[in-house]
Specification:
Layout lengths: L4 E4 L3 H9 L5 E5 L8 H4 L4 E2 L8 H11 L6 H21 L13 E2 L9 E2 L6 H15 L3 E5 L2 E8 L2 E8 L5 E5 L2 E4 L20 H8 L4 E2 L4 E8 L15 H4 L3 E4 L17 H12 L4 E4 L8 H4 L1 H9 L9 E10 L2 E3 L11 E3 L4 E2 L12 H18 L21 H15 L6 H17 L5 H18 L10 H14 L5
Parallel strand pairs: 1-2, 1-10, 2-6, 10-17, 16-18
Antiparallel strand pairs: 3-5, 4-5, 7-8, 8-9, 11-16, 12-15, 13-14, 14-15
Length: about 500
């Protein structure tokens, strides 16, 4: 098939875009198996949608803007939350089976920073898997879509200042130039650039790296969300940490220290405060000793039925949440920044689009509201697909520039691990100007030693872009915590009050 649209990635954003792009001929490239690849499949919490009694998209928008520290785009947030109810209906039409209450209505959970219960979930904590099952089934049945499993994008094909295709490699490492008038990057997040993350192995910032290479505008890279309750087990690097869904705190699970003290009790919102607040509290408590998520009173013996995925994860590590609290620690979970896009998913480069976590649409602000990511992926995926279905097909150029792509060198794995450590150490939950500058210097050294066109060079470029963005924002906002600015502000306040020290 000669593609008119190439989509790099296969999460909810990618598949929603592919379906909406009909009758355009769409080629989907996914590094693993369709429906099982990427962070969407792993999503435990659910989809935020204002469908409950007494709820409204306007209230959902208020919570979204508040969680984003007032930094989100109000118009786009309003559009997103209005789309929620219709998207749930669309998924049901595709065959998605959501959990129901005793009256046969969709059961709604509550998560952090939501004023109401509005989280639609499936099989307790397997919402992403169910949504991906339904979307993948629809994609496989769609005549206008071809899927190539085991294919990875290595770079973007260009003509003058436009993107017109993808350089891709198959399972055997053979490279192919795949031309197309439009390319949609749906490559996911950046978690694997950090030492500790809940993200799958392919969430390595590759989409941002490709965007940097072609000169696309990026924005808000400093806003990295840390999930406060990753299961604190250490496996083989770079395996992700298992996630303990926020829905556990939504039903009453509490955070305790090694003495059983509930240390979030005096915080506004307690365990259901915004994720940046809870993550910082857990991070600071960990300096004093272990932190645990205690679900015994809230869930207890019902754990296997109510949260089967989390229960299986705990059991795999020799833990039983029915009778003991689970050790937790923060880990990188979601990136609010990314490729700057408009309401149709268009980047600043002609022919290049972006959706999902790799994009920055302005809806998440400085901190994502829980369970808004699947919602955004579907809403913007359908928007960009619908846009491409309607616009005239651009004339393809006679010649295309193929980017340089090199095989990984033996030392790349060790250097990539150093990058992960330096981002965690210097651009983690709390940041300072001095630490960010040290990180920049060390990342620059690795970048200079990396061979052009390798994955290591791409990772180093994204790492430096994140560090530079964090350094450029001197004050704390949402998930971006500049502890040096906070300390300076506190000292200034004391001085103004006539105090010292």
């Amino acid at each position: 098939m000669r593609a008119e649209v190439i989509i790099v990635g296969s999460g909810v954003a990618a598949l929603s875009a592919a379906l909406a792009a009909a009758p355009r001929r769409v080629l989907v490239l996914t590094p693993e198996r369709l429906g099982l690849d990427g962070a969407s499949h792993w999503a435990q919490g659910g989809i935020a949608a204002a469908i409950g009694e007494g709820d409204s998209p306007a209230q959902h928008a208020e919570d979204t803007l508040a969680a984003g520290a007032g930094y989100g785009d109000p118009a786009r947030v309003a559009e997103l939350t209005r789309a929620g109810p219709e998207l749930i209906g669309w998924l049901q039409q595709l065959g998605a089976r959501f959990d129901l209450d005793v009256h046969g209505r969709i059961s709604l959970g509550r998560e952090a920073a939501h004023g109401r219960a509005r989280i639609v979930h499936a099989r307790g904590d397997a919402t992403g898997a169910e949504v991906m099952r339904a979307l993948a089934q629809a994609v496989r049945a769609a005549a206008h879509i071809e899927v190539r499993e085991g294919w990875r994008a290595c770079g973007l094909l260009q003509s003058d200042s436009s993107v017109r295709g993808v350089l891709a490699a198959d399972r055997e490492g053979r490279r192919f130039a795949l031309p197309a008038p439009a390319v949609i990057l749906a490559t996911g997040g950046i978690g694997q650039l950090f030492r500790y993350t809940t993200n799958p192995l392919h969430a390595d910032g590759s989409g941002l790296a490709m965007a940097i290479t072609v000169g696309a505008v990026l924005r808000d890279l400093e806003f990295v969300q840390f999930h406060p309750t990753a299961l604190a087990v250490r496996g083989l690097d770079p395996a992700p940490l298992p996630l303990l869904t926020e829905a556990l705190r939504g039903v009453g699970a509490i955070l305790i220290d090694s003495n059983g003290r509930r240390f979030m009790a005096s915080t506004a919102g307690a365990e259901l405060a915004a994720r940046d607040v809870v993550s910082r509290a857990v991070y600071r408590q960990l300096r004093l000793g272990p932190v645990y998520l205690d679900s015994r009173a809230a869930v207890g013996a019902d754990f296997p039925q109510r949260f089967p995925a989390v229960f299986a994860l705990a059991q795999a590590h020799g833990l039983d949440p029915r009778s003991e609290p689970l050790p937790v620690a923060p880990a990188v979970h979601y990136h609010m920044g990314g490729i700057a896009v408009d309401a149709a998913g268009r980047s600043s480069v002609d022919g290049l689009f972006a959706v999902g976590e790799v994009a920055c649409s302005g809806v998440h602000g400085a901190n994502r509201l829980a369970s808004n990511s699947l919602l955004e992926g579907m809403a913007y995926g359908r928007a960009v697909g619908g846009y491409l279905a309607q616009i005239p097909r651009p004339i393809m150029p006679a010649r295309l520039h193929v980017p340089v792509h090199q095989a990984a060198a033996p030392q790349d794995a060790a250097a990539a691990l150093r990058l992960r450590h330096l981002l965690w150490d210097h651009a983690g939950i709390e940041r300072t100007a001095a630490g960010l500058q040290i990180g920049m210097q060390r990342a620059q050294t690795i970048a200079e030693q990396a061979t052009q066109g390798t994955q290591l060079a791409a990772r180093a470029a994204v790492t430096m872009a994140i560090l530079a963005a964090a350094l450029a924002r001197p004050n704390s906002l949402g998930a971006h915590c500049r502890s040096d600015a906070d300390e300076a502000a506190a000292a200034d306040a004391l001085q103004r009050a006539g105090c010292s020290g």
